[in-house]
Amino acid sequence: MPNTAVIFFSHSGETYSSTGNLPYYAQGNCERLARYVASKIEAPLFQIIPIKEYSPNYQECLEEAKRDKEQGVFPELLYDMDPIDFKNIVLIYPNWFNSCPMPIFTYLAHHKFEEKRILPICTHGGSGMGHSENELKSAMPGAIFLKGFALPGEEVDKKRDEVVSYIQKSLAK
Ligand SMILES: Cc1cc2nc3c(=O)[nH]c(=O)nc-3n(C[C@H](O)[C@H](O)[C@H](O)COP(=O)(O)O)c2cc1C
């Protein structure tokens, strides 16, 4: 898909599941989804990675992420990618505390998104998109937001083609 980039953040390691177990994923839910989507829509893929990665231990990750959120920490990122060349951004992220992970906000703060079309795709543990869409709108002034799509993280492998169709339809408009 021309003029489109897939940008994602994902946590790898122990992952929330409604069964109460904490399955271990070397690639988190959003990463598996983003890789699939990018290959299907033939778009470049960029991963937002903080220099200091969150712990693969779920409980420790929760504590670290909560601390970042409460203290308004913008974690420094390992790499950057200027989105200037892309008209459409498919932004894939997990719901963290009904919002987005702070590294997403670090990335957004470094770039301008005026006139770009943003399609948020959020994976979650039961709370849908939470307030994330509104927070993204505040962090990306002037961007054109397409209606986002939320799906439970534990269904990403089952629903990945549904997500691809949704993205293709949204961006074709
Ligand atoms: C730090 C942290 C906070 C989370 N907060 C929420 C939440 O508020 N609501 C929710 O539904 N799921 C929450 N989750 C679950 C994730 O959104 C869900 O497991 C997601 O699919 C993880 O994607 P990932 O594996 O790509 O990181 C949280 C997970 C973590 C690690």
Give an overview in words.
This protein has 5 helices and 8 strands. By secondary structure, it is an alpha/beta fold. It has a single domain, classed as Flavodoxin domain (Rossmann fold, 3-Layer(aba) Sandwich), CATH 3.40.50.360. The strands form 2 sheets. Strands 1, 4, 5, 6, 7 and 8 form a 6-stranded parallel sheet that branches. It has a two-stranded antiparallel sheet with strand order 2-3. Helix 3 (102-109) links the parallel strand 5 and strand 6. The longest helix has 17 residues, at 156-172. The relative contact order is 0.19. The structure holds flavin mononucleotide. Flavin mononucleotide (FMN) is lined by residues 10-11, 15-16, 28-31, 61-62, 65, 94-98, 123-127, 153.
